[in-house]
Specification:
DHBP synthase, Rossmann fold, 2 domains, 9 helices, 15 strands, 28% helix, Threonylcarbamoyl-AMP synthase
Length: 335
């Protein structure tokens, strides 16, 4: 197994039957494998193996108090590691498999304490991707799979993105092509009396509220980046500075400053955009699904250009726009 201190190149394998079988063997043996899901590429390890989880944290450089999502192939497997009340069960039956993570009370002794960051709850998702499902089935156990990038970096939507961040730090990348949704899952806390939105993402809040027949509660976010803080994360993706490029990001701009690249939407061209060294449009046609799928790849391309910063035009607040704006706000947070 490649550890975070190794320098051997990471193997890349097409996500065929042989590659999936190899990924399953590596996970059972405690190794690290990047796999495609419908949201982004996930860095997978055996969620019941604390040493494997520690290797994953080390490979990502991830804060150990930031819990991981346990991925399972179906609802039956999910109910073996967490306790589902009526609301959680309704949401699981309605939206799984899909880009929705549910935080529920954990059944102790299964998903490791380290993967749960010592919490009494567990975050669970059933991914809607045939390769991810096949790998989960081959491994035969819950799999932790945060985004397959260095912690705080832009999330990966292709195998090439994974290798750019983690080559030599993990065992294998299963190449299943570009991801479909392009932003991480929506996370709901179902461990208390109310269903609470913890992180907007690939499942629009409006669809969830329609299924529940009531509005979601919302926890104050983003949280402080301190392990002892009472507001420390109870789910992934809740740190204030997250998904961050190496250059400053400005949001909701009406003009582009000298030296800034422009991330735009629906062909918007604020003042000064004609002098921007690079311009990328999340969706020239104004399609939020396309924008979500392009978000991290576009951020990576702009971050790799010789620019002083990234200016971002105002984006819609409805549907997937809420999740896109959340990721961009974290990218722009002070760090």
């Amino acid at each position: 197994m490649v550890s975070a201190s190794d320098t051997r190149p990471t193997r890349r394998h097409i996500a065929d039957a042989a590659g999936i079988a190899e990924a399953g063997r590596i996970l059972i043996d405690g190794g690290l494998v990047a796999i495609p899901t419908e949201t982004v590429y996930g860095l997978a390890c055996d969620a019941t193996n604390a040493r494997a989880v520690a290797e994953l944290y080390a490979a990502k450089g991830r804060p150990s108090f930031n819990p991981l999502i346990a991925h399972v192939p179906d609802l039956d497997a999910a109910r073996r590691i967490g306790r589902f009340d009526r609301a959680a069960l309704l949401l699981a039956e309605r939206f799984w498999p899909g880009p929705l993570t549910l935080v529920v009370p954990a059944i102790e002794g299964l998903v490791s304490d380290l993967a749960r960051a010592g919490l009494p709850s567990v975050a669970i998702r059933v991914p809607a991707h045939p390769v991810a499902h096949a790998v989960l089935t081959a491994a035969g156990r819950p799999i932790a799979a945060p985004s397959a990038n260095r912690s705080g970096h832009v999330s990966p939507t292709s195998a090439a993105h994974v290798l750019a961040d983690l080559d030599g730090r993990i065992d294998l990348v299963l190449d299943g092509g570009p991801t479909r949704v392009g932003i991480e899952s929506t996370i709901l806390d179902c461990s208390g009396p109310e269903v609470t939105l913890l992180r907007p993402g690939g499942m629009a809040r409006e669809r969830i509220e329609a299924a529940l027949g009531r509005p979601l509660a919302r926890r104050a976010a983003p949280v402080a980046e301190r392990p002892g803080d009472p507001d420390a994360p109870i789910a992934p993706g809740m740190l204030a500075s997250h998904y961050a490029p190496s250059v400053p990001v400005r949001l909701d701009v009406d003009e582009v400053r000298p030296g800034e690249a422009l991330l735009t939407f629906a062909r918007a061209r604020p003042a000064g955009s004609e002098k921007a060294p690079r311009v990328l449009d999340l969706s020239p046609g104004g399609d939020l699904v396309e924008a979500a799928a392009q978000l991290f790849a576009h951020l990576r391309m702009l971050d790799s250009a010789d620019v002083r910063g990234i200016a971002v035009v105002p984006l819609p607040r409805h549907g997937l726009g809420e999740g896109i704006r959340d990721r961009l706000a974290r990218a722009a947070a002070p760090r």
